[in-house]
Design a protein that fits this description.
With 107 residues, this protein is mainly beta. It has one helix and seven strands, in the order ββαβββββ. The termini are far apart. It binds FE2/S2 (inorganic) cluster (FES).
Length: 107
């Protein structure tokens, strides 16, 4: 008998806020497959494509060339396209006081 393939999952608690429509920010929790080499940008894209219209910035798509995807993951600031995804993540904008929408802040 073949052992079942263990399927790892990520659970991401994500900061959500649209100041033009909402009075207070909130956190939404999303789940998805956690695969090798997956980074936080992949997680954000998965959430965008699978769940809803999460707002975040991406430009060069990876490799820390543009730096536009700066984000806070589990309390540490870094680039979403270079931070490895983990099983449990809290994903927030770099400055909650300057949020334009979700993870996008005024630059
Ligand atoms: S998207 Fe350019 S550094 Fe992440």
């Amino acid at each position: 008998m073949v052992a079942p393939i263990s399927e790892k999952k990520f659970v991401a608690k994500v900061f959500r806020f649209d100041p033009s429509k909402e009075k207070e920010p909130r956190y939404e929790t999303y789940e998805g497959p956690l695969v090798p080499q997956m980074n936080v940008m992949d997680v954000l894209r998965y959430i965008y494509e699978t769940y809803d219209n999460l707002a975040f910035r991406v430009s060069c798509g990876g490799g820390s060339m543009c730096g536009i995807c700066r984000i806070k993951v589990n309390g540490k600031v870094g680039l979403a396209c270079t931070i490895p995804a983990t099983e449990n993540m809290t994903i927030e904008p770099v400055d909650k006081d300057k949020v334009l929408r979700d993870l996008i802040v005024e630059s």
